[in-house]
């Protein structure tokens, strides 16, 4: 009985560790997306300062290519929309993983209590020498 609970407890602890790894991956991804969004906000602010007759260049590999201001703004807006949608997706994933972490901790707490009770019963029921 005690060994069964111990194996189940180990299995649930492994599951908890995996959920924590997934959460940490999502957190890192969120931080990267947040950084990208901030960069694009800065680019948008710079582009908003420019006038139509100003030259805008886009870096493609090692080459600067001339680009229309309206096209550059459009690309930045599209990129920001995409990053915002990815941020929402990652936030939803983190929320789901957070709930899984809470429920997994509850499962482990209950198993630990059952394990302790089983150990106590086992020590009481053992014949004394």
Automatic annotation (TrEMBL):
The keyword Nucleus does not apply. One of its GO terms (cellular component) is cytoplasm. One of its GO terms (molecular function) is unfolded protein binding. InterPro entries: PFD_beta-like (IPR002777), Prefoldin (IPR009053). The keyword Coiled coil applies. Residues 2-53, 94-121 form a coiled coil. One of its GO terms (biological process) is chaperone-mediated protein complex assembly. Keywords: Chaperone, Coiled coil. It holds the Pfam family Prefoldin_2. Heterohexamer of two PFD-alpha type and four PFD-beta type subunits. PANTHER family: PREFOLDIN SUBUNIT 6 (PTHR21431). Belongs to the prefoldin subunit beta family. This is Probable prefoldin subunit 6. The lineage of its organism: Eukaryota, Metazoa, Ecdysozoa, Arthropoda, Hexapoda.
